[in-house]
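Quick question about two entries, pasted in order.
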Amino acid sequence: MESPAERHDKLVREIAAHDHRYYVLDDPVISDAEYDALYKQLVALEQEYPELKTPHSPTSRVGGSPREGFVKVERATRMFSLDNAYSRDDLAELLRRVSEGLPEGQQPSFVVEPKLDGASIEIVYEGGVLVQASTRGDGLVGEDVTENVRTIRSLPLRIEHQGRLTLRGEVVIYRRDLDRINEQRLAQGEEPFANPRNAAAGSLRMVDPRVVAKRPLRVLLYGLVEAPKMFETHAQALAFLKELRLPTHGREKIAKDLDEIMAAIEDFDRSRPDFPFDLDGAVVKVNAFAQQEILGFTSKFPRWAMAYKFAAERAMTKVLDILVSVGRTGQLTPVAVLEPVQLAGTVVSRASMHNADMVDKLDVRLGDIVFIEKAGEIIPQVVGVEHGKRHEDTQPFRMPESCPVCGTRAVRAEGEVAIRCPNRTCPGQVKAALHYYSRRFAMDIDHLGPALIEQLVDGGHVRDVADLYDLDEEKLVALDRIGEKSARNLLREIEASRERTLDRLLCGLGIPQIGQVAARQLAETVESLERLLSLPREDIERDVGAIHGFGPKMVESVLAWLFDPDNRALLEKLHVRNVGRPQPKPEVVSEGPLLGQSFCVTGVLSRKREEVHAMIRAAGGEVHDSVKAGTNYLVIGEKVGKTKLDAAKKRGTQILTEQELYEKLGAS
């Protein structure tokens, strides 16, 4: 007869094996009910014999209470970024440099892998037990997310290896799992995640591992950094990880020359829809570790690897309808309703056409077959029409003369492309304004999703952002699918937003030409909402005009917005409700490595944008919202749009990578 300890060990191993089959191999052999029964047996056994429970038991995956924050982790081996390639010529240049950097007669081979679009992670096992997980951070210093990573069932808590292993990988969410999460979030009135990468990165940094455990995160490992016995090649190291039943992407290909590398990349590109996770390119690495060591690193990148970025993925589909949406400024935007189609990892059923001029230029009509791409790999947009497949009886689309939401006659200001609804109380504008006001960079009101905003406005409960502070539990629970707990959560978030500083409030109000950086400058100048409301127009004009970087058009925009009677009334309502605390006095920096230099930051970064801005200011630098005549540097992350890059090239602004900025700061 089995002892309790033997039974416990058997259950732990059996559950771990089923986790591996389900989350890694995607090939479960038992039903969910059978799995749950095994898990309940383990829980009951550990309740009866508490001494049997260990840190690597499946019941230990979800820890205790939320943390206050994340501890910094300094790593011995830096996590480098990869230089990017966009063409065959770029890869040919990599192969030339590799050949010249190796001793004469040495012929390299290469490993080509899918470039995973997730959140980078480092994992450490000691004595076969998972002991640490950390985010990428700046490469040398990351954040300890061990408790969150322990909740990920694709990653074993214990492996059959007694030495120390340091591994690199990516935290991802499968597309099918993201669809399920977004369905749940929409049903709860929450905003859906834009893409799997955002969902994975955001989940990884949540302070409560109990919440993280509800997100279907997966780890895919792609690198071995430290082991008691290192291997000769990267391919051998990947095979070793699979032998340990660790999760890998399993799609690597060996190539000996440029033709074979390009064939592997093209194969990945063609088969992107077949991958369960998102990828935005391929990674090419020299296979032999000894050759990697010879080639070494630049200050930013390894000389033996490069990331090949795929061209924007394009899909073809049919236009079922053309609707016109109303934004927070009243702008009418044509949106194509599409026959659903897979594009860059998500199902797309709508795509923007921006404005009337774009519709005229593209000549998109009902029933047309159109090409769509994702702008910045996020927002679907129509980029072309297959005119040869158009039916003869189709009619050109014309923008409506009146607002489709409130019926007010639309206007088009001289010199503007945009057509707008001039009615400030238009429900379409109010809904869009509420969504913008609640965003993370503004007033950060969680639980206020599109479905809930729709109900609040259509039900007459909210006519402007100030009305949010008059909501109570009784009003909220009367709405569809809003229970007492959801109502209390939302009210708690709204109450917390009263304490956001003035710059967050001004940003959330959406003053034209005033982004996050300009809102902070404006808030530091006027100090508080109370003082702003008491200052005469000439004083504000003088003070705002003195803000560095505020040109005549920005000053005019601020004054026009602040002294508009409707906006003035809204500010008064917010003041009466004690929204927005005074702006803290800026710390005057008289020295630092960036003193006298100005920066604009764009793209997806490894740190929060606000944190990067704060680092620049603390080092004596100045931050701009956009690339202006006086901007010295444009700092770029991943997925950078063309607008700021084009402006930088036009003005001669120097372009820095995120890592190059940290090197200037002395934080690399």
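Here is the second entry:
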Amino acid sequence: MPVAVQRRAVVYRIRPCLSHSPAAGARPPALLLGCCLLLLAACSTPVGVTRADPRTVHRGLTSNVLSSGRLSGPTQNVLFEQDLVESFGADPEKALARLRAVVVAGEARRSDIFALAELSFQHAEDTGKRAYFLASAVYAYAFLFPGSGHHAPDAFDSRFRVACDLYNRGVAAGFASEDGSEVDLHAGDFPLPFGTLQVDFDAAQLQKDNRQLTHLIPVAELEVHGMETRYRWPGIGAPLAASTEPIDPALGFQDLVIPWSKVAVTALLRIDNPRQQIVTDRVHATLTIESPSQREQVDVDGQPAPIEIESTATLAYMMAESPVWQQEIAGFLKGVGVIDEKTRLAMLAPYRPGKIPVVLVHGTASSSGRWAQMLNELFNDRRIREHYQFWLFTYNTGNPIGYSAMLLRESLTNALRRVDPGGTDPALQRMVVIGHSQGGLLTKMTVIESSDRFWNDMSKKPFEQVDLSEQERDILRRTMFVHPSPFVRRVVFIATPQRGSYFAGSRLAHWAARFITLPMDMVHVSTDFVLRNKQAVAFADMGELPTAVDNMTPGNRFIKTLASIPVAPGVAAHSIIAVDGDGPAEAGNDGIVEYQSAHIDGVESELVVRSGHSCQANPHTIEEVRRILLEHLETN
């Protein structure tokens, strides 16, 4: 052992100096001085301390095979106590077998079980042998939940959390697919270094909420980029991100779950009386899949234990595989063919009865991906997670705003009919809609009564008197005559150009708008209306269908009319207004929208956030949305 060898070397160098030192006068002074210095060095204490940076000392005390690749102090202690330091370095499997023999002989202490877990994991990582990953999980479980007749470790034991992580990582790696890219959960007999692990698993657990879980990814192996925060709810079990697809392919998108949805699940390997089983050559275990959306803790040995949840990594993984980023500019320029009608309104996870929908509506040349940080924060607030479910609305942002708002209202109405055809879930009647920028204008159009105001901007004649086909009349009625959606009870406007955007009025914006392809159904309606009702046209340039840029240009008929219509009675509205810089808010803007445009009277609250226009990820914006949602829970 290095310490012992060092100490013996010091002792043997000291003794010759003391026994055979000649008289001082027999040697020259310089040589005598050298001998004195050597004597002082040889006589220094073999055990001592050196003051060091506390961080360095702390790293040494808390280091383990998972965090640094080095064995923890407790495991190194066990190796020394069992005289296995050199043996483990030379032949790890032989050393592990010797330490296991102590366990089988009934002489094991809790520290020996922990050491077996950590040593097995290190050897598994060094060799890639699956059997040792599984052995690590088995030993770690035996340390954490020893079973009847044994005491569980104290919560203050530093090894407790390390053992949880060894177990979680051991389960994920022990059931890894052949190429290591996924986790393959299944029943069967699995080799252990000392025998067999018999695993029971009901494959029906891979079906949840009428969807099949596929492609289970160990999120502990994922680095997250683009998120300001990463939330991990520590507990027991291997956290996984699972893709989902309808069990019946014929059902397609009927449950409204976004096709690239990823859900967080946790794999748990249960072992009854593990301290008794690990002394045998056959360990029996049951594998289960836990869903954090349904429960966040499980019963182990009669005690509640939280399951490990990695929600941020799952959300980031979902967003990374989402096509929404490619839709941002394409969705602005193309009126059709970019945003699939089936995925216009989508849920992040299957519908949950009793949870209030929060619908997020993005802005111009943007996408639902821009809500990622806000979703991450809100979903990791237990108060929010237990009472709300999040839906995303995606649309082609170059289209006329009235047309996009019509699609939003109808998508919400159809969604409620689909998920709750009997109208039995009162939570669905308390919907909250949150819109950023142009999305805020769409949001407002879910809670207003327009009467014939938009129509009068277009026509001098009453709607019933113009010459239109029934199909054209139907689409104009749905677009021009806006009624409040009765299930929307609260709205939040974020950086919304209530009176238009000065940027939308710029030459650059109008130049870009020239490349927008508008929806053909609206183009045909607009053209036919002008050709067949020339005397009814309200203004000269009516022949050209306006884009969203036109609609948001200050002074435009549409934006002036929308700004003049109040939010319907009984609906709570809130404004979050971005202002860049430190000057007076009333004279400021966010680079796109003036404060004076975003400010409206009659709202429940208004918060000014010092930020540029894209303020959805600003912590003050998120905190205000959190506050509003919690306030909403207290209202009827």
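Reply: Confidence is low (pLDDT under 50) at residues 1-26. The domain at 322-459+482-519+547-633 is CATH 3.40.50.1820 (Rossmann fold). Hope that helps.
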